[in-house]
Amino acid sequence: MAGLADLKRLFRRERVELDLDDIQGLVLRSRPEPYVGIHAMLHVDDATDGRELLARLPDRIPSAHDWADDLAAWTGVAISYEGLRALGLPEQSLESFPLPFRQGMAARAQQLHDYGGNAPEHWDEPLTPGNLHIALSIYAEDEAALEAAIAAAMEEVDRVEGVTLLSTHRFGADEDAKNPFGFRDSISQPTIAGSGVAPQPGQERAIAAGEFILGEDSETGKPLAVPEPVELGRNGTYVVLRKFVSRVGQFNEYVASHASDDEAQHELAAKMFGRWRSGAPLTLAPDHDDEQLGADPQRNNDFSFKNDPKGLMCPHSSHMRRLNPRDSQLTIMTDVNIHRIIRRSSTYGPKWTPEVTPTDDAKEDRGIYFIFISARAFDTIEFLQQEWINGGNFIDLGTERDPIVGIHDDTDGNFTIPADPVRHRLNGITTFNRMAGGEYLFLPSLTALRWIGAKGWEA
After folding, report:
1. Rounded Cα distance, 335 and 207, in Å
2. Domain limits of the chain?
3. Which residues does the annotated region (Disordered) include (predicted)?
4. What local confidence, expressed as pLDDT, does residue 1 receive?
5. % of the chain exceeding 90 in pLDDT
6. In the chain, is it the N or the C terminus that has fewer CB atoms within a 10 Å radius of its CB?
């Protein structure tokens, strides 16, 4: 997928069919490369103060109308169900939200396969059930811009006494934009119909706007259910936030124990991810990494799996192919387009090196906030967790799970690499990403933020 700079060049306002001036810019504005940022978690102690904060925040949040402008930093704000309740929304509005959102992520642990070390009782304190009410996320191009944006946001928070700052967590990556395991990430992004950008290389068409924006027509030809009243729901969307602590040392150790030298280790890691560390997809560079290809947004996502039906180039069970099967032949038929997501993930901690050991895992704060936007966010993440991540039936691999983000009890995981004449199956995979907390969030429109701030239900 084209990066932010490329998308800005491709944007044409005459193509726009959405209410961009009412949609938060974070929906369309992806991370720059390099990027820095901060996630701030807030708790509403007093409804009046909470609403006062929300009433002023729209002045600090760029709309999607400005997403292609030269912004050095931008802020997004999302609210949990408990946060909406703490802000005093009427029951009629609260009950109009989907059941999974009302229950919250922790209560959906069974559907999400959040058990064992990933269970809610082990989550970080700010992300334990009921604590996170408002999430502020700031993305910036450099530290100076980030500091200015943080100062502006915290000025608003400090002006009210009834909102508590639970925690902040900084994140960022250099121009390679790599995840904790050293792989370029967030490459594959959907193009949203009516957003002003045409489909990019590797995409057959733009996805219906209603898959991402409430009130617009979805892939079914009709809008999905919208929270009531219209001032609250329209032009909003939903966010899944899941914080992971990455066990990079364990991953390095596993790969080293199953590959003979550095080159073989890089190749095995690429087979598990589906791309080389540069971002080059295995289907286009099956034998060796191609850094120029990986860095080229016009080519690094321009591929299909039609010419690799047996998975000889990119294994069916690789992380990338599982989470976006594209035109793969699936044992269980699925409409891939209704499971597309807008990725806003953020990496934190030291960069990957092959020298990171399991001992380092216990000493270093390293991981990723898996964040995505979708009007079907809750159905999508629970489907992904149950079927594409922690199952293998859809690709005729039984109980085999995602080798990177799947849940593996102790060392019971396996990974199949198709080969001719005999496939290669690796055993002993453990859980390389431990869940440290998360929440289901509502990303309101700018109108909705003002409506909540003004207690619009009493107007």
Report:
1. 12
2. 4-244+438-458, 246-338+353-368+377-436
3. 283-308
4. 45
5. 78
6. C
